[in-house]
Specification:
With 148 residues, this protein is mostly helical. It has three helices and no strands.
Length: 148
């Protein structure tokens, strides 16, 4: 860029700045404040979406913890009952059969419980993502509406 071109560009920029009238500055400030208020209002909705998502996760943890506690209690009680039955058996063969049946059913129940937990967490993830996904769509619309 030549010195003459630089001087012309600088002069144009200076003329542009000097051409601001108090009314144009006031209009700009009012538009800026209006835009800032609009964005602040929009962000309130974002916070609500984050809170809804966090609430879904918290409820998911609560439900999973309750289910896990119930499952562990049930398994413990069945283990105690099986041990009592094995100790009360009349022969070693009978004790082995009792323990074998317990192991088989415990394995099946653990697989079923793991499957139900996987389904539960899939649902929690969907429930937690829904408000954020909706809000993202609203954000895209908001940005598109403010493009000038």
């Amino acid at each position: 860029m030549t010195a003459k071109k630089t001087a012309e560009t600088t002069a144009e920029a200076l003329e542009s700045v000097m051409s601001f009238s108090p009314e144009s500055v006031k209009d700009f400030y009012e538009q800026f404040a209006k835009g800032l208020n609009s964005f602040a209002d929009f962000q309130k909705g974002s916070v609500e979406a984050y809170m809804a998502s966090a609430g879904a996760v918290a409820k998911g943890f609560e439900k999973a913890a309750t289910a896990q506690a119930s499952f562990v209690k049930e398994q413990f009680e069945e283990g105690v009952a099986t041990a009592k039955a094995a100790f009360a058996s009349k022969s070693v063969q009978e004790a082995i059969e009792i323990q074998g049946e317990f192991a088989r059913t415990a394995f099946e129940k653990n697989l079923g419980h793991a499957s139900s937990l996987a389904d539960h967490w899939t649902g929690v993830a969907k429930d937690a993502a829904d408000p954020l996904t909706k809000r993202y769509g609203e954000f895209v619309e908001y940005v598109q509406s403010h493009r000038a």
